[in-house]
Amino acid sequence: MFQRFVADARDTASLAQEIARRVASPTIEAEHILLALAEGRDAATQAILADAGLDPEGVREALERENERSLAAVGVSPHAFDLPPPARLVKSPRWAASAKLALERSLKVASARDDRRIEPSHILLGVLEAPVGTVPRALEGAGIDRAGLARRAEAAMDLAGHDGVSG
How many domains does the chain have? Predict the structure, then answer.
C-alpha cells in the first residue's frame, strides 16, 4: 500500500510514527495520524484542518479533552495524580488497528475516486471515516462536523484536480 503514497503521504506516516515515539506510545494510533496531518507539510490538508479549528494545538486539545472524558467515565481524574512523564523511549512503535484501518480506508477512498496515488487528503478522509474510536469522540467533543470536514476535503481535492499523479 505504501508504494501508492505520494511523498507527502509517506511523510505523514513517518511523522505519525515520530509523534507516537515522542509521547512514548508503543503503538501508532489514528490520533497520531491526525496530529501528523495537522503538523505535516501538506498545506492544503493543514488549511482544511485549521479552518475547522484543528491546527496542531487544536487537535492536541481535542484529544486531551477526550482523554479526560474517557477517564472521568470510569471515575478517574487525571489531575488527581502527580504522574511523571513517560520515561521509556519507544524506538519503533507498532501500527495499531485504528491507524491501519485509517490507512486502509484512505486506499478505499482513493480507489473510489479512481485516484492512482494516495495523498494526505485521502489519509484525512480515511481518518474521518472511522465509525468509532478516539478520533471520532475527540472531534465530536470539540464540536467538529466530521461529515462537513470530509466534504471540504473532497471539494478541495476536486478543485485541485487530484488524480494522484503528483508527488
Answer: 1
